[in-house]
Each structure stands twice: as C-alpha cells, then as structure tokens.
Amino acid sequence: MLMTSSSGPASTGGTIDYSTVAGFYSQLAGVLAGFAFAGLVALVAAQLTSGNRAGVVLQSFAPLISSFIGLVATSLNYAIISSEGHTARGAGLETVGGLGFCVAGLMLFYSILVLLYGVATDAAKGESGWTSAIIARTVRLVRKCITLGLAPLVLFLIYGGVADQEVFWYSGEGGLHWPDYVGISLVFLVFSVGCTFLRSASGLRERQPPSEVLVIRISSVATTIALLSVAGTSIVFIFASTGSSLPEWIVVIEEVVLALMVVAIVVSSSQFILEEGRLSGVIGDASEVESGSKIEPDDLAEVG
Predict the structure, then answer these.
(1) Which of 133, 123, 1 has its CA nearest to residue 55?
(2) 187, 192, 193, 195 alpha-carbon torsion, rounded to 10°
(3) CA–CA separation, 43 vs 115, rounded Å?
C-alpha cells in the first residue's frame, strides 16, 4: 500500500481502500517471488550439467534466496493487511508492510546484478569473450538502474505511506511537517550516495573484486527485515486499535532502516564493474569477429 496518495479519513472525504491496494501488492509480491524461484531453479540445474564452469556466478545464490524468502513473506504480509479497511491502523500498516516489500523487491534486482556479473566473469575464463562483452554493458545498465533509479524510488514509495499517515496525525492539516522533511531528505541522500559511488568507481584504474562477505551479509539483513515486517504487522493488529495510528518516531525509524539498507546495496552494487575495454580487447571489435579472426588462448588467459 505504497504511494496511495494523500487519502484522508472517511470523514474528510478519503476514498482509497487500503485492503484492495494491499491485495494487489500481495499478488505482485507473489509474482516477483516466482521470478526469484525460477532463477534459483536455473542456477541449481546449471550445476548438474556436464562441463559447468560456474564460479563467481554462485555468489548470486544468497541474494536470490533472500529475495525469494522476502517476497513470499511480503505476499503473506499484504494478504494479512488486506483484511484491514480504510482506518488509521490501515494507514500505519502501509509503512510496516512497505518496508519488507521495498527491501525484498530491491534484493531481486540486486541478485540480477550479481548473477550477470558472475556470468560475465566466468564466461571470460572460457572460450567466448563476445558474450562477456555484451553482458558487461548489461551489468553497467543494471548497476545504474539500481543506484540511480530503484534505490531512491523505494525511499520515495515508503514516504508515500508516511504522507498517508500524516492525514491522521495532523487531522487533515495541509503543509509539510517534520516527517516530510526526513523522508524527502532521505530520498535525495540516497540519490547523492548513488551518484558519488558511481562516479568514484568509474574513475578507479585498479578495482577490487566484489566482496562476497558483503553480499552474504546484505542478503541476511534483507531477509531479517522482511520477516520482521511480517512480525510487525501481527504486533500492530494485536496491540493497536482500529482508530490508532503508529507514532511518528516509529515510522521515521522505518524510513531510516530502509535508507541504511538501500545505501548498503548501493555501495555493494558499485563494486560490480566490468571493464568493457578488457573484454573487447579479447575478442576484438564486432567486425573482427564477423570476419572470422581467431581468438588466441593467451588473450583469454589475460581476462581470467
């Protein structure tokens, strides 16, 4: 139930049905979980084939499993939230459920980045440098989409849930309040961090390989947040009445937790860089490949 607009209580003319929106998000999370599961099955099946050269690509197991568990938990979470109508508690559940959804959804795209990087790296050690060069450009595209697009977007989505709750906090009073400034500041902060790391990473001549430990830690924390989101929904239903909204400080903490998680993913994503020049140097340009120029084993060894 993210970005449901500034819908007010029924007494002030609000018309957004939180339960209907939550049902749609539950379906979306289930579909995304299916994509994550398909990726896991493909990775497992690849290990059973003969001549498999999988190495770095196996690092994508952790984020894929994390996104799958998180999206399944999110689908269940929104199914529970869909039982709540247009109430102050329903507005509060926007950010509780949205926290797990944003983290799990972002992890799915993060796992794609790790997977593509591993495929390109492992392929460069084999016989085909042409495929690696194509994937190198795709890795750069996915990395930019995460750091400059999806990262600030999930913060903006969770801020939409904060805006809906302000209608209940301030009785429909217009204008910006201190939670607005916190939410907007976090969006611009994450975008600035993404720009900074993209620029600094592209300027490095000697790049360190991505940290496998960092990938596993990010995956573990993301899974924990998604599961805690489900637990948080149950706690709200147990202890909060229908007309009660969440305290402002709890909602701001949810925003900060999401921002920290997003920054960690942005920092890790900036490490997945493939140098096009090296891969292109292995295979030559497209005209050389089409003309049948031979790829020397020594060239492949340099990339490996």
Answers:
(1) 123
(2) 130
(3) 9
Task: Write down the H helix ranges in the chain.
Answer: 18-47, 61-81, 88-124, 129-144, 151-169, 178-202, 212-239, 248-269, 276-283, 286-290, 297-303
Please state, in angstroms and rounded to a whole number, the distance separating the CA atoms of residues 239 and 247.
13
Q: What average pLDDT score do residues 117-132 get?
A: 64
pLDDT given at position 300:
37
Q: Three-state DSSP class for 206?
A: coil
DSSP assignment of 148-159:
IIIHHHHHHHHH
pTM: 0.81
Identify the residue with better confidence: 171 or 300: 171
Contacts 24+ apart (CB under 8 A), 54-59: 54/118, 54/122, 55/118, 55/121, 55/122, 55/125, 56/117, 56/118, 56/121, 56/122, 57/115, 57/118, 57/119, 57/121, 57/122, 58/118, 59/114, 59/118, 59/210, 59/212, 59/215
For residues 269 and 215, the answer to whether their CB atoms sit within 8 Å is: no
d(CA 253, CA 178) in angstroms, rounded, equals 13
List, for residues 253-299, the tens digit of each pLDDT value.
999 999 999 999 999 988 888 765 444 333 333 333 333 434 444 44
Instruction: Please report the pLDDT score of residue 273 as a whole number.
Output: 80
Task: Quote the pLDDT of residue 4.
Answer: 43
